[in-house]
Write a structure and sequence with these properties.
By secondary structure, this protein is of the alpha/beta class. The protein has a single domain, classed as Uracil-DNA Glycosylase, subunit E. It has eight helices and six strands. A six-stranded mixed sheet has the order 1-3-2-4-6-5, sandwiched between helices. It binds iron/sulfur cluster. The site of iron/sulfur cluster has 15 residues, from helix 2 and helix 5.
Length: 252
């Protein structure tokens, strides 16, 4: 049975580099419930991946250290990133996400199957709000709060980030906690935009099968969000504001 949570993972002295932060993240065992789950999944495996040695650890961020656009997801998938060790790699959500990133020029290839598949990102960094795979894809509020310092430190080490694309309401809320507090709290919506602490948060429905198989999120909708992220990043870099393209509730 899982024991009491350990101390929060964020050390008093922030990491001096992304490499140092990554080393801290992958060694973290601060959430007993998530450590037990990620390691059990890695031990039991899914039959289709029986010949894989699962990663079974926290999943660090991935991408271009000079990125102007950060994508924030929820947490690693049990048999996706928890198996492969790279965020959104090895599952249907990743298939959807990276195909869109390739169409919109952020990724050099449309597929993401393993850490050695040659995938490279340009002008983008991808991370999860919670770094360990949670049961039923649902971290507890305590687990979220324990892990968020990693995302906060990561953002501090990505000096060019101007846009944060939040995949789903959980990531939207996490980003507001990282950058905020913001009162009143802006509501998540697909296409919503809000300026917080010098960055633009951009809402996008999560790329989960629940959304993509049902048509709630289409390829066109996904591509439009990343095209918008690029436009905001370019215009903020040039010092000119990007005109709001959001629907109702956007551009708060
Ligand atoms: S979820 Fe985050 S804080 Fe909790 S064990 Fe994993 S890496 Fe550490």
């Amino acid at each position: 049975m899982a024991g009491a949570p350990a101390d929060p993972p964020a050390a008093p002295a922030p990491a001096a580099s992304l490499a140092e932060l990554e080393a801290r993240i992958v060694a973290c065992r601060a959430c007993p419930r998530l450590v037990a789950w990620r390691e059990e999944v890695a031990r039991v495996k899914r039959a289709a991946f029986a010949d894989w040695t699962y990663w079974g650890r926290p999943v660090p961020g991935f991408g271009d250290p000079q990125a102007r656009v950060l994508v924030l997801g929820l947490a690693p998938a049990a048999h996706g990133a928890n198996r492969t060790g790279r965020v959104f790699t090895g599952d249907r959500s990743g298939d959807w996400l990276y195909a869109s990133l390739h169409r919109t020029g952020f990724a050099n290839q449309p597929t993401s199957v393993s850490v050695d598949d040659g995938l490279r990102l340009r002008d983008m960094w991808i991370a999860a709000a919670v770094r360990c795979a949670p049961p039923a894809n649902k971290p507890t509020p305590d687990e979220r709060d324990r892990c968020l310092p990693f995302a906060r430190e990561e953002l501090a080490l990505l000096p060019n980030v101007r846009v944060i694309v939040c995949l789903g309401a959980f990531a939207w809320d996490a980003a507001l906690r990282i950058l905020g507090p913001v009162r009143p709290k802006p509501r998540f919506a697909h296409g919503a935009e809000v300026e917080v602490a010098g960055r633009t948060l951009l809402g996008c429905y999560h790329v989960s099968q629940q959304n993509t198989f049902t048509g709630v999120l289409t390829e066109e909708m996904t591509d439009a969000v990343f095209a918008r992220a690029r436009a905001i990043a370019r215009r903020s870099a040039s010092g000119r504001p990007a005109p709001c393209a959001a629907g109702p509730g956007g551009c708060a």
